Amino acid sequence: MQLKVQIKTISNEHVEEFIRCPYKFYQRQLLLRKKQFVDWRVAVQLTAHQIINTYYNAPKYKRSSFYILQLIEHYWRSLKPTMFHSQIHYYDVLAKVSDYLLQFLSQQSEVELPLFVCEKYGVYVPELESNISLTIDFAQWTDSSYGVTKFIIDDQLDTQKMIKYFMVAFTKNAFQKLPEYIEFYSLLTGKRQHYKIEESDYEEAIKQLHMMKSVLEEPKFFQKTNSLNECKHCPLQSECSLDNAVETERMTMFM
Predict the structure, then answer these.
(1) HEC-encoded secondary structure of 61-108
(2) Residue 224 CA to chain centroid, in angstroms?
C-alpha cells in the first residue's frame, strides 16, 4: 500500500531540488543518499554564503575588493574539480561567481550591517499546517520596510516564482510584515529579477504552496525529470527512467 509522505518541515532547498528533479529529490532528501553525490550548485551556494557572511562580520574598514578576493580564494578551496562536470566547468563557475560576488558586495559597500546575512529560520504556517524553513541570504532595511535578496545559481523562472511564494509566506508569518521587494541575483550571470511585493501576494503564495505540499506528499510524483540538461551529468542515470515510479509505504521528510 502506498501512503502519503509525512511532511515535517518544507525548506526552500527542498522546493528548489524538487523542481529540478523529483527523483533526485527523493533519493537525496527522503532516502538520505546524500553521500553518493555532491550537487555542485548546492556546494557553490554554501560557499557563497560563507564568503558573504564572513565579509559582513568583518570590521567595515577591512571590507574591500581585495578582501573579497581573499575570501573567495580561502573558501573555494573546499570545492574540488571532481564536483563539477569538468575542469573547464569548474574554472568557468569559479570565474563567474567571483566576478558577480565582487560586483554585488562592492555595490553594497555602504551597508553598515544588513538586517540578515545567510541566516536560516523556521516558522509555522497555519494555513499549510506545516513548518517552513528559509535561508535568508541577504536582507536590508528600506525607507518603509525591508528588502530580501536571494542568490541563485541558475535563472529558471519556475524555480524563482515558487521560491518567491515561499519567501512571501515565510516573511509574513515570521516577521508579521511582508518585504517591500524580493530580488533574485544570479551568481552565474549577474542577472537580477526584481519583484515588488503587495499584501495580495500572500493569498496567492499560500495557494501555490498548498499545491506544492500536495505534490510533495504524493510518492507517485517522485519521478525522473525530462530535462536533458539535468540528466546529462546526474549520477543516478542508471537508477531511474522516465516511467519509473517510486514504491514506498511510508516516508518522512525532515529539514
Answers:
(1) HHCCHHHHHHHHHHHHCCCCHHHCCCHHHHHHHHHHHHHHHHHHHHHC
(2) 20
Cα–Cα nearest to 162, from 128, 198, 225, 206: 206
Report the C-alpha gap between 158 and 139 in whole angstroms: 22
Higher-pLDDT residue of 79 and 17 is 79
80 Cβ partners below 8 Å, 6+ apart? none
Q: Examine the pLDDT at 154 and tell me if it is beyond 70.
A: yes
Q: Say if residue 142's pLDDT is above 90.
A: no
pLDDT value of position 96: 96
Average pLDDT over residues 193-222: 84
C-alpha grid cell for residue 131?
513548518
Alpha-carbon gap, residue 125 to 172, rounded angstroms: 9
pTM of the model: 0.81
Euclidean distance between CA atoms 200 and 202, whole angstroms: 5
Alpha helices in 1-39 (DSSP H): 12-20, 22-25
pLDDT of 248: 44
CB 147 within 8 A of CB 167: no
